[in-house]
Fold these 4 entries.
Entry 1:
Amino acid sequence: MAQQINRLLPALACLWGICGVQGVQATDININGMVVASACSVDTGTVDQTVTFEQARAVDYTKVSDTSEWQDFELTLSACPLSTTQVTVQFSGDADSDDSTKFANAQGSASGMALQLVTRDHQTEISPQGTLAVVVDKNSRRAVFPLSARMYTPTGHVTSGEFQTTVQLTFTYQ
């Protein structure tokens, strides 16, 4: 029996050596994500809003920078979550070929006219691709962008026709 154990021990030692040589390797997994502020609701009066100007006469726009009267309007977002403290809007649209700080009369037939867009206090002009940020009111959970717009001639050479342009809005929440 001792002889059988002596023969078995080297065999077991070899098996243990083979079985014991196992690769062990530690590794890390990086998991990334982003927590973003939740969206507010765009009020129905803001969705597809139309700002209408009074009828203008081409003969009244003979000098560079002649303008129509300001038309006030606002963009309103409501039901903003508590985690959303600020809303930024980007204004996208075609820039006027004569004044790139104004929006082109892209869909209208009148020439020589552009859209000037500013904050309601007329202190900040908003150009195509420009942005504007407002703080969400903590009590009402609303974000309101008070704005004004008017027709503007960058050339002083206006022809009659329809004035129509589209400004697309993209909201970002912080």
Entry 2:
Amino acid sequence: MCKVSVIVITRNEEHNIRECLESIKWADEIVVVDSKSEDKTVEIAKKFTEKVFIKDWEGYGQARNFALLQCRNDWVLWLDADERVTPELKREIEKALQSAGNEIAGFSMPRRACFLGTWIKHCGWYPARVVRLFRKEKAKFSEDKVHEKIIIDGKILRLKSDILHYTDPNLEHYLKKLNTYTSLSAEEYIAQQKDFSIFKLVFNPLWIFVRMYIIKLGFLDGVAGFVLCVLSAYHVFIKYAKLWELSRQLKIKS
């Protein structure tokens, strides 16, 4: 059987990290990169692996690329702290790696999300395929501060079993994350010299809601689906509002 290294990036994940690492304790190696958590995340992680690294936060892409450098195995599985590998996915991974030829660089799998205690089946969230298993020498992460992308050089095959994503157990958690992510996105737009657009501020949030709630059948997910679609539109609105704010501040300074 091919040995697998698993990488997990953490910050203040004491409520998630134990179950996350329990779901991957079968792996040959677990690498945790922590961004100076102020809770018991590191203490819990060290019960599962000796390879726990603490470093300053420089963005998701840089953190994951650092984690890759610490892996000793050819095959790497990337997992977030609020995600779980099911026994079915574990068995499918083991079977897939046994037969993977040299031309295979990675595998994608569907991710099923639990939002506010409800498993989301529509809204464009499921089946949301993500590439999470890959050959180390064939992959790298983009340097984006948020919503980093994995760049794979080679053929990607599809697995059937789900990764489980326990995202946003309550609205307070969602809104805290929204504030962080929208700030990072706005700062990244400024760094990329993207101009503010009143059109995008007004119409992009509306389009997100229409796409998720109507086109992607979010209304079939009940109240949780409606809340998710509204908040997703709000997320986009705040992102562009923050871009406007930063752009205006730069103009005043200049």
Entry 3:
Amino acid sequence: MHSHELVAFVLGVLPISEIRGSAVYVFATSSNIFTVILGLLAGLAGNLIVPFIAYKILDLLDYAFRSKYTPRVVKRAYLIILEHGRRRSRSVQGKGYIALSLFVGIPLPVTGAWTGTLVAYVLGLDRRKSILAIETGVLLATIIVTATISLGIQVLKQLFLL
């Protein structure tokens, strides 16, 4: 993996950029279609591993919050938030995975794989089904972002006769 693809991969993993930032970087720094495709695949691969990383982090945080060393006020607040989320999830149980896919797939600020995994965790959704929904959302976001950037480049070329 070259440095260009490595940067795209890292941008795909980072919570602040995810596939949106990775795709913009790839299109901004690549001149031929081969490097664009390689960069997009690297960014996509980085973003596809996010739920696995996020679930491990959330499991560690859960263990820490439930520890006997955690102050009672913090533990109580954590458990109240989890219980509230799990109670609310019962109302969306059937549609939760489609909604999760769309939440992750529509490329808006704070609607990526990291946030989607957090939402699935707080709502207590099934982990395997949630990961599948999040991965589907990541693929959808990749398609939307890539199409939007490609269209934008074509429009700019037409406007400025490049």
Entry 4:
Amino acid sequence: MNGLEGFKNLGVSENVIGALRKKGFLKPTEIQEKTIPILLSGKTDVVAQAQTGTGKTAAFGIPLVENLKEGAGHVQALVLVPTRELAIQVAQEINSLRGRKKLFIVAIYGGSSLEQQFRWLKTGVDIVVGTPGRVLDLIRRGRLDLGHVSYVVLDEADEMLNMGFIEDVEEILQSTNKGKRTLLFSATMPQRILGIAKKYMKGHEFIRINKQGLTVSLTNQVYFVLSSSEKFEALCKLIDSEKDFFGLVFCRTKADVAGVADKLVRRGYSAEAIHGDVSQYQRERILDRFRKKRTSVLVATDVAARGIDIIDLACVVNYNLPQNPEVYLHRIGRTGRAGKSGTAITFVTPQEIKRLYLIRDFLGASMTRGKLPKENGSLGLEKNRIKTYIENSVKLYKHAEYTALAKELLDGESRAEDVVAALLRYLLEDGQKVRRSSL
């Protein structure tokens, strides 16, 4: 049997199935099974509770591609998303689903060329994927006409609420064609979001994934009970235990992010940080290096990490326990995606255990208490990291207080390589007794 038979049974065309085959899709996810048939037939609006990583972009992207007409000459669908990164990713995803169908799809967001966006809109765009601020700006300038749209999609609606975009979203909705279909996707359903649905959607169908489906099924959720002072050493042990660690580390504050990233770099790890003080240009370059795995550890605040979508992200670490289930859900939804397994690790202090259990019970999640891997003193495993640390230390720091001792050791009877080897042994083995604070 064709591995994509499940999509065919949902009413998906051979053209789109061909595109899905190229993308490596195997079978529909739960949100796709429940959403696609409704959107392919009838005129019902849809409100769907779906976490990042559950396949929701294809859940609305496939019906858009199937239902829109070629050569319409006007904007047929608008997809609103909270961040520029997500706008780019969603536009690329929908474009990859269209197969041979001639649809023009663009991403519109702040910080990019207005003139370029003016030219796109003038030539005839079928699907606009954009952030609320830039979309509203183009509407007010008279450059974006939504009077003929057939579909409006609000993607990650709760994130748009958290970022203060809901007033912009409402103004945009008021400028759209009254006969359109509205589709709302959100990981959580706060009252303000439900109010939007009630006010702007007609007789909508509510799709709710069961609680177990809220967290990505391929994500293994593990927690470690630690004191605050033990967290950094625990993080290093976890990174060292994986041959090719590739993960996103969440911290609560900018100071925590900067501190953790700096200590990782000092120890020789390939790590970078993003937070509110990082410029947009720097952010894009950091994310590009991370996506290409030139950086193996990215440390971030929740706000700075919005819109980050890395398909093969292996691990998410909650260095600080999130304040509520919604934040936890958004964090761990970045791993265990596209049919690949992932791990969500949470560090909790003894005082935070009850709050972790409340999050677990609210989400219906399965969590296991983990044991940290034992310290491995093998020089072979840590050789590259030690070399990087020493090279960085020589370049970045002055060592005047140690220079005299170093000269004394090198001028002694022992060979220089034996002196260095003894220091490495102390660093890796004997030095454990006084903590590895130097690395």
